[in-house]
Amino acid sequence: MEITKDIKYVGVNDHDVDLFEGQYVVPNGMAYNSYVILDEKIAVMDTVDAHFKQEWLDQIRTLLGDRHPDYLIIQHMEPDHSANIAAFMELYQDTTVVSSAKAFTMMKQFFGTDYPERQIVIKEGSTLSLGRHTLAFVAAPLVHWPEVMVTYDTCDKVLFSADGFGKFGALDVEEDWACEARRYYIGIVGKFGAQVQNLLKKAAALDIQTICPLHGPILKENLGYYLSLYNTWSSYQPEDDGIVLAYTSVYGHTKEAVDLLADRLREKGCAHVVVHDLARTDMAEAVEDAFRYSKLVLATVTYNGGIFPYMRDFIEHLTDRNYQNRTVAFMENGSWAPTAARGMKSLLENSKNLTFAEHTVRILSALSDESRAQVDALADELCQ
Ligand SMILES: Cc1cc2nc3c(=O)[nH]c(=O)nc-3n(C[C@H](O)[C@H](O)[C@H](O)COP(=O)(O)O)c2cc1C
């Protein structure tokens, strides 16, 4: 695949991965992107996952023929991008590896060497000339590991954005960008909003015509759309007005109350009412929706004096990613001493700028006239 006349795609599609990064289901697979810049000097941008070593090396060999790469540029040391450094450096003995000091430390840890005789250490502001193309390196610490550098090609105005602007899904599957890019961003990069904001400020100073991420499609048109979504996500602002109802229920009574609330909200014309059974849904999808929408209802049974485990896990996923700037309401169930609402609220006590709904629904085992009235009151409040 040609990105520009001089920049070629040499990445791979992975349809065998069971859990990406050990936890994310990827129904449409995953792409590990790598690129080659052809100029007087040749640069290869990053490697791919270990399982695709041969496919990746074969693509490079087919593209280059007898020519050898001058540089291997490593922007990010996470193994889905760096696993084949040693194989590549073994095959191309006269290539120099170009990376940040922190990345070289990790390289030594992963491979037992940081190629001291064949390395160029770059930092913010470093440049590398390939001929017509000059690469300018921009530090992007914690987007999403500390060693990350992104690379701007001043000739073709391409930003190689490392994991930034990445997406779940292989490139041979057509699907909406935002949905799986959001689940990827919130799950994987969501904790590092401040660092992404810093990177966006640096990117604003560049004339970018193409974004080449390490996962997901190459972005060439409507770049303002992608940049604006990244700005919304990294500043922790809701993207859409909507209400997420996230619940756990052992015997179905709490679920019944949640379904009743969802019906009431829809009757009142609330846009976007999304319900997640936290024991059965993809947790990353529920977390994505909690960050996407402006309001969240947390409903759970009291469980051994505390909160049902999936709900605790869900709230920890939110607070780990700096959940803030939203309205939160609680529904609790308990058969002898309901304490779940208090417990859920205490897990959110350090979250910034949350507005807690005035009405809390308290169910004593099963819905009653009293708790139904509380559901109605909460629906009224959330739909104001
Ligand atoms: C294992 C277990 C532990 C529970 N612990 C408590 C508790 O500590 N306090 C309480 O008031 N109710 C407790 N309950 C009752 C539930 O909170 C709830 O009333 C019941 O599961 C009905 O809701 P559901 O149909 O949505 O599951 C417990 C239930 C189970 C199954």
Automatic annotation (TrEMBL):
Question: Domain Flavodoxin-like spans what residues?
Answer: 243-383
Cite the InterPro entries for this sequence.
Flavodoxin/NO_synth, Flavodoxin_dom, Flavoprotein-like_sf, Metallo-B-lactamas, ODP_dom, RibonucZ/Hydroxyglut_hydro, Rubredoxin-O_OxRdtase
Task: Please give the Gene Ontology molecular function terms for this protein.
Answer: electron transfer activity; FMN binding; metal ion binding; oxidoreductase activity, acting on NAD(P)H
Q: Which PANTHER family match?
A: ANAEROBIC NITRIC OXIDE REDUCTASE FLAVORUBREDOXIN (PTHR43717)
* Family the UniProt entry places it in: In the N-terminal section; belongs to the zinc metallo-hydrolase group 3 family.
Q: What is this protein called?
A: FprA family A-type flavoprotein
- Organism listed in the record: Anaerosacchariphilus hominis
